[in-house]
Amino acid sequence: MESKLKAALGLSKVKSRGTRGGGCISEGNVFETEKGMIFAKVNKDNEASLMFDGEVAGLTAIDETDTVRVPKPIKVVNLNTAGVALVMEYIEMHGLSKYAETLGEQLARMHLFNASLKT
């Protein structure tokens, strides 16, 4: 995967730093590059590229509200037989319970942003 990411992103250094945040749909991988850390979410489903294009659109829309901090998408990369990767900014995650109230307030502001688009 490292060589595919190097070529697709125009990087000379891509070194795996292990898996993170995997789920039942996609696998998460962290990589160190000469430009900093990146996160690659990998899926082998036939529709993975379409799914990740939708996720890029969603993350971009949320980011544009300037309310909730989300990772910035970098690129959707075809890994051939290894699937498709959504490459994005890596954000170090910590326990979220102490941030739950702040997150709730940010989500409320995001929904107000959406409502303001209709007026």
UniProtKB/TrEMBL annotation:
Pfam families: Fructosamin_kin (PF03881)
Single GO term (MF): kinase activity
Organism for this UniProt entry: Stegodyphus mimosarum
Enzyme class: transferase
UniProt keyword Phosphoprotein present: no
EC number: 2.7.1.172
Catalytic activity: N(6)-D-ribulosyl-L-lysyl-[protein] + ATP = N(6)-(3-O-phospho-D-ribulosyl)-L-lysyl-[protein] + ADP + H(+)
Keyword hit for Kinase: yes
One annotated Gene Ontology cellular component of this protein: cytoplasm
Family statement drawn from the similarity comment of this UniProt entry: Belongs to the fructosamine kinase family.
Record Gene3D superfamilies: Phosphorylase Kinase, domain 1
Protein's UniProt name: protein-ribulosamine 3-kinase
Source domain of life: Eukaryota
Keywords of this entry: ATP-binding, Kinase, Nucleotide-binding, Transferase
